[in-house]
Each structure stands twice: as C-alpha cells, then as structure tokens.
Amino acid sequence: MKQRDMASPIILMAFSLFFLYQTLLIKKVGGVSVIGSGLFPQILLTLILIISAANVFNTWRAAKKVGQVESGELVESVGCVKSVKILNHWAALSTIAMLIITVVLSDVIGFLLASGLFLFFFSLYMTRKFDVRNLIKLAIFAVIVSVTIHYAFVSLLQLTLPSGILF
Amino acid sequence: MVTLFFTSIVSLLSVKMLGLMIIGVVVGLVFGAIPGLTSTMAVAMILPVTFTMDSVTGMTFLMALYVGGISGGLISAILLKIPGTPSSIATCFDGHPMTAKGLAGKALAIGIFASMVGGIIGNIILVFLSPPLAKLALTFGPFEYFSIGIFSLTIIASLASGSFSKGIIAGLMGVFFSTFGMAPVDGVSRFDFGIYDMRNGFALLPVLLGVFAVTDILKELAKAHNKENAEKTAQDLGGYSLGLSFFKEMARQPMNFIRSSLIGTFIGILPGIGGSTASILSYSEARRASKHPEKFGTGISDGIIASEASNNAMVGGALVTLVTMGIPGDSTTAILLGGMMIHGLQPGPLLMQTNPEVVYGIFAALFIANILFFVIEYSGIKLFIKVLDIPRHFLYPVIFVMCMVGSYANNNMMFDIYTMILFGVIGYLLDGRGYSMACFVIGFILGPMIEVNLRRALMVSHGSFVPFVTRPISLIFLIVAALSLILTLKKEFKKPIAK
Q1: Domain-by-domain residue ranges, chain A?
Q2: How close is the nearest chain B Cα to the Cα of A166, in Å?
Q3: Residue B6: strand pairing partners
Q4: Taking the model in full, what pTM does it have?
C-alpha cells in the first residue's frame, strides 16, 4: 500500500460518519417493527467505518516503512487480477458533464433533440477531427441514431421518452 | 406424466406453433439483449396479443418470449459488459474478460450452450418434481430467506480475494445504498434529503447500468490516450464452432452444469428472489468448488456456465410454484399468472387435474423454446460479434443513449437517469482505487432481501434471534456461510505479503 491509498479510506470514514449522523434523523415508528429502520444502515456504516479505519492504519504503517509516494494510477480489479494504468481524469469528467447537460436539456428540448446533440458532440469529442467531412459524417450519424431510437421506442414499443417543450 | 409431456411436444410441432415460438424467442432475445428492456417488459407488452389465441397457443407464445428474454441478456453482458437483464450479472465477470482476450465467439457459444442445458434441466425438474419441490419451498419463512441472503453474501469474501478489505467495503457499500428510500415493514423514508423521488430509493437497473456501462466507458475514455488501449482486440471467429473440442471442454465440467442448474431451479422456486441472485449464487458456488478459483474473473468458461445455466434453469423453477401453487416466483411469472387468469385458467394444485393439456403444453413449450433459442442465438453469433467492430466513437455514444433510454423506461423517471450517472461516477471512483464493483453490485442486489427478511423474522420471533439457529434449514445456510467466510479468511491470511 502507498500513502496515496490513505485518501479513499479517509473519505469513506467521513462518508460513514456523515450517514451515521443521518441515521439518527430517521423517524422512529413504534409498534410495527421490533427494530427501527435506522438499525440496519447503522450496522453497515459502522462496519465500513471500522474496516476503513483499519485500512488507514495499515496504509500509514506500510507507508512509514516504505516512505514512497506514487501518483496517477488506476488499480483495475477483475476478481483478483490487477493492472496499473495511467489515467486522464479530465476525459471522464468531460463525459459526465456532457451526460448531465443532456439529461437537463431533455427536459427542455425533449430527448430526441438532446440525444442527437449528445451523439454529435460526444463522437466529435472522441474523434477530435474538426474537418467539414468528419462534421457532416457525425451529424448524419447523430440524426440517424437519435431518430431510429426515438422511433423504435416511442412508435414501435409504445414506451415514453422524456419530452420537452418541442418534442 | 411422461406420455402427456411428449404428446404435448408433438402437438406443438406444427408450422403455426413453431412459427409463433420463433417470433416469441426472437422478440424475447431483442428485449433481453437491450439493457433496460427485460423479459418482464416483453411478456407484459405482448400479453394483450395473446387474448385472441386459445390458452395453449397463448401460453406457448408467452413461454417463448420468457425464455428468449432471459437468454438474450448474455449477449450484451459478454460483448459490452452490460448485463442485458439483471439475471446475466455474473456472466459479465468472466464473459467480458474473454471478449477482451479476443474470444467473444467462444464466450457466446459457451453461454448459449449453458443456457440451453440449464433451461432443459430446469424443465425436467419442472415436469417431474413440481409438487414436492413447491411444498418444500412453501415451508421457507423469513428466517430461511435471511440465511440464504447471508449465505449468498459470502461470495463477496471469495470475489474480494484480490483486495479483501476493499472488497468487503464495496459489498457493504452496495448493501448500504440499497437501504435508501422507503424502509421495509414500517415504510419510513431514509436518506431522501427532501428529494421526493429519493423516497423510492435507487432502482436496480439504473444502478447496474451505471456501475457497469458508465463506469467502464469512463475508465476506457480515461485511459484512451494510451496507444495500446486504443487498439481493438482481434476476435477469434473460429472459437465458437460446436466441434469436438467444444464439447470436450463442456464435458469436463458436468458438475458445474448440474449444480448451477439445480441452484437456479431452486432459487426460481423461492418467490421473490430472482435470477440475479441465482446467477450470483451459482457463480459463487462454482468458484468455491473449482480447483482453480483464482482464475475466476479472468475469462474462463466455468464462470459463464455457472451464471447462464442457473438463470435459464430459474425459469423452470419459477414455473413450478406458478403452476402447482399459483404463486409467482418472479415479476415475469406474476404477469404470466395474470395471463393465465385472463385465459380462464386458475393456477394451483387443481390445474394439473382440470387442464392437464395446458400445464403440459406449458412444460413442452418451455422445452422447445430452449432448443429454438439455442439455434437462433447460435446462428447469430457472427452478427453479434460485429458490434465489436463498430468504431468506439460511434459505439460509446450509442451505448450511453441506450443506457439513458433503458434507465428512463424502467419507471419513466428522469431521476433514474441521474441515478445511472451517479452510480457511474461512484463506480469510477471506487473501482479506480481497487474496490471491486462486482462486490458492490452483489451487496446492492442482496441487501433488500436480507433487511426485509431480518425485520420480518424479528417481528415473528418478537425480537429473538434464536429461531435463526433453531430452524434446521436456516441453521444449515448460516453454518455453510460461516465456514465459507472462515476458509476465505484463512486463505487470505496465509497469502505472502507481496510488497
């Protein structure tokens, strides 16, 4: 373990403490149930708190021995296989921002237009080619996919999609 | 019994019935493969179409839809690491790593074959053991359900063996997030922060889509500037032929097929547990019983077989209680129950005596549907793999839009799309620090079952924990859970410290 690994258990400890406080605000209803609705989450949060505290202690002890700090790593876990890769968090942040803007826009201009804009700008963000040919290609892609999805779900499957002022 | 079953199979082998079943299986597969669309939705939407049909034809069509819907989930689970249906959740664990190795065709073939075998074993159990199994399941109370939940939760300990404490924390976090919203039993709202939509808590589907699809794409994008990551993995298209080597590989694990199918059938019989638990429990048991448990999660056939055999066998199990007791085992069978009633049938112990042709018609339809989906899905493998050839800048935005549609279609709530994004971010942050998302999801799925049955049990026993250890079935599950946990801990502490 490395010093940097201390951040996540400390954040989890803060998370547990915050929600443990929130469990105290849960309404208590007498009579129906033997245990209150707050007890189960309290048990879970206490366990998270204890294990995270143990992780902080172990990390601190290990870091004291090694005295080494590394940064910018992703430990990717699938079962017990791990690999380390360099990360560009900005790409993830931009994607999340685009997703949120799309959802907010869906309420205003409808899902058909909002998803079309998302498809265009997100694929443009991924290709990063601003020549006219690529822009036309991506615009056609965005229109075809958004219209197809809208038609398939709304007209064929009779499902509802978020509608805005326009659609 | 056997004669009636075979007579029913023969009566279904007409062009009209087979044509109808092929349509049902194909529609079901499409619903199963698209995240957000489920077999429940397929059966619910097509149910009115069956009103004009006679009861046997209508139920046959619905059975084909049900089987297709459950089986379609493995396609997106293996190719895109997005469980098409929640019951394919454990298929992602080994299916997608196989795709990453260029073995998508083989993974799909194994999944499809395992689904068919599981489905047929569940079908056989349905035909021969329906009444006694249903009676046994009816003796289960909240104590037993709680113990089964705890037993299933111990898979976290074995899945988390890479980073034990982080896996346990991820599992606990999953259980904790399942407690948001209205509490079971007394309906008290928890952690809603004044947001009205939070009172319903986080729905399973948006959480699954967030944790698997959104997290994975965010991770891919975050490392996309690494040249080696931008390259696509070449897929071995020869790996899926049903040759001698394929069957040899399958024949090496008969116990995995049988054990997973039995678990799936039994979980199906227990009302309200569902295919996701069956899939996780079978995966866990396959890992526990394996001679090479460390290979699970790296892309081996054992994991796919366990998950897929169990979720298709679950269909047979869910029909056991529906047909013999009139109790639906899951949401799809609840709609089927409604369908049967509309067709003038009253599921229950008397149905086998009053309408044997319908009961055995359902059993036969399930059998034929299992073979049909195998043929249809297997023929489509090459087509499915083409999805992986789509350039990432086209594929990722389409996946995101489909996930948004799937999340929204779940309850027609914008809140569910925000939930998907939130859990995508949580997944990205936790996974990035080595917290296993598989453990998180397992906790999230099992959490409600554990809490609701704990509270119900304590109400029944007036606050006493004693019945958990005095009721034999509950005690057995708790002992096995404790043993499994102790063994994993022992293994964990025996490991040499790497650094």
Answers
A1: 3-87, 90-156
A2: 17
A3: none
A4: 0.77
